[in-house]
Amino acid sequence: MLHTVTRSPFQSHSLAQCLQFICPGDEILLLEDAVIVAMSENIYFDLIKNIGVKIYLLEADIIARGLQEKCDKDLDVIDYKGFVLLTERHDKHMKWA
User: Fewer Cβ atoms within 10 A, N terminus or C terminus of the chain?
Assistant: First the structure.
């Protein structure tokens, strides 16, 4: 299943709720304000880094928020084409907002 999270964990519980339902083989795409999680110096980064599923960040949202140099390099940054490929790879999708 592909999980998409759109809200900052500093303003919403959507990321925490998402993490409660993660299963092996799932993937998470952080977009919109959720990309702030990728900044390696916050409490939420440690939560996502060690959960055992692949995490992606949408490049356009990172750029829009000026976070290019602040995001952890261990997370995969994808463009819109990569976003489409993720949705094609997963027959189920859950949006956490």
Answer: C
Is residue 74 very low, low, confident or very high in pLDDT (cuts 50, 70, 90)? confident
Q: pLDDT value at position 71?
A: 84
CA dist 38 and 58 (Å) reads: 11
Query: The tokens of 2 are what?
Result: 């592909």
Cα 88 from Cα 91, distance rounded (Å): 7
Tokens 């993937």 locate to 27
Question: What is the chain written as a DSSP string?
Answer: -EEEE-S-TTT-SHHHHHHHT--TT-EEEE-GGGGGGGBSSSHHHHHHHTSSSEEEEEHHHHHHTT-TTTB-TTSEEE-HHHHHHHHHH-S-EEEE-
pTM score, whole prediction: 0.90
